[in-house]
């Protein structure tokens, strides 16, 4: 049996969103309780609610939208790295993680525990400009973090998005990495094919290398 680790944040009416964003809401239009023979609901949300990817168009004028991204970016070898310090991740931290040749990297921090907090926290751990520039130099294709944004709360957040997405490094945000030990995995995290979308929700999972070999 393959070992799958679900690293997706559940979407519910209480899901924490970025300040000012439209809160996620699921509205049931028909249900068995109301006497209907089926269940039907509609969703109200931004493309950045819950676990999602940012396409270059999110911050780069004329950048690629979600449906134009290579699906292969979201499936393949991935490394989960642990940052235990109570501060933002800088280039020195990246150097110590030995990411040469790694195309997909997910940063597990103390943020993962924040999913138990019902309101937004400005003091989450994120990447610094120097860390983003280092990841570009390493030719990483995808970067993920375990809270709502890859950059710190404030003006620096936009700059970090611009550095990564402007260099075709896809960003994955709002991951729940509490059950993902540091190490190498296979990532499967396909975004919805939203035409013209600057972002899209994903169902992200990790599979251990041993499990991949069992299925081959």
Mean pLDDT equals 95
Largest sheet: 9 strands, mixed
The shape is globular
* Percent strand: 15-25%
Number of domains: 1
> Could you tell me how far the N terminus lies from the C terminus, measured between alpha carbons in angstroms?
13 Å
CATH domain fold name: Glucose Oxidase, domain 1
Uncertain residue segments: none
CATH superfamily: Putative cyclase
Return the string of H and E elements: EEEEEHEHEHEEEEH
Helix content: 10-25%
SSE inventory with pairings:
Elements: E1 4-6, E2 25-30, E3 40-44, E4 52-54, E5 75-82, H1 91-96, E6 104-108, H2 129-137, E7 142-145, H3 156-165, E8 170-173, E9 183-188, E10 199-201, E11 205-207, H4 209-215
Parallel strand pairs: 5-6, 6-7, 7-8
Antiparallel strand pairs: 1-11, 2-3, 4-8, 4-10, 5-9, 9-11
Helix pairs in contact: 2-3
Distinctive features:
single chain; 216 residues; alpha/beta; Glucose Oxidase, domain 1; nine-stranded mixed sheet; 4 helices
Q: Explain this structure to me?
A:
With 216 residues, the protein is an alpha/beta fold. Helices cover 15% and strands 23% of the residues. It is globular. It has a single domain, classed as Putative cyclase (Glucose Oxidase, domain 1, 3-Layer(bba) Sandwich). The model has no long low-confidence stretch (mean pLDDT 95). The chain has four helices and eleven strands.
Task: Give a brief rundown of this model.
With 216 residues, the protein is α/β, with parallel strands linked by helices.
């Amino acid at each position: 049996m393959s070992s799958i680790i679900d690293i997706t944040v559940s979407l519910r009416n209480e899901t924490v969103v970025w300040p000012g964003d439209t809160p996620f809401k699921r509205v049931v239009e028909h249900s068995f309780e109301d006497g209907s023979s089926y269940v039907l609901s509609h969703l109200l949300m931004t493309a950045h609610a819950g676990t999602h990817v940012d396409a270059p168009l999110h911050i780069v004028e004329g950048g690629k939208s979600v449906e134009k991204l290579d699906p292969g970016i979201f499936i393949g070898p991935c490394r989960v790295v642990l940052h235990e310090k109570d501060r933002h991740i800088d280039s020195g931290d990246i150097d110590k993680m030995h990411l040469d040749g790694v195309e997909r990297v997910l940063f597990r921090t103390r943020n993962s525990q924040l999913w138990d907090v019902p309101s937004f926290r400005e003091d989450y751990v994120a990447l610094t400009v120097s860390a983003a520039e280092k990841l570009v130099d390493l030719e990483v294709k995808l970067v993920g973090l375990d809270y709502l944004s890859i950059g710190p709360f404030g003006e620096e957040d936009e700059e970090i998005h611009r550095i990564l997405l402007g260099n075709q490094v896809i960003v994955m945000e709002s991951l729940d990495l509490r059950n993902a030990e540091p190490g190498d995995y296979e990532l499967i995290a396909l975004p919805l094919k939203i035409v013209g979308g600057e972002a899209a929700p994903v169902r992200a999972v990790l599979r251990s290398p041993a499990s991949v070999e069992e299925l081959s």
